[in-house]
Amino acid sequence: MGDTASMTDPRVTVLVACLCAAWCRTCDAYVETFQHLRTEFPTARFVWVDVEDHAALLDDLDVVDFPTLVIASGDRPLFAGPVLPQPAVASQLIRTALAGGLSGTASMPPSVLHGLQQLAAVDAA
């Protein structure tokens, strides 16, 4: 999935990663929602991550449900958790993150966040 913004673009302030699995039917339903979010928030950076394709990267992260959304600003994870496949839920989270309203209390190993940022950069190329 192509991205609308580059991590080196100064307008990009938020990374949004969707962690899914190819076998997950809920994730299949979430693809359209995720594409809509990319269009709605052109200054955010989006990356779709199949957890089985990137198992080594996500080994230190306890993903318990799908889809799981990770929202980060720089090296600060702001949100990491499962989301309903409803556009309004994720849209509100992203809008709040872009406005600086998420506190950044999500717990995530720095290596995982760094890996997601690298995947996002490769996805844009």
UniProtKB/TrEMBL annotation:
Gene3D superfamilies: Glutaredoxin. Residues 1-121 form the Thioredoxin domain. InterPro entries: Thioredoxin-like_sf, Thioredoxin_domain. It comes from the Bacteria. Transmembrane segments: none annotated. This is Thioredoxin. It comes from Rubrivivax albus.
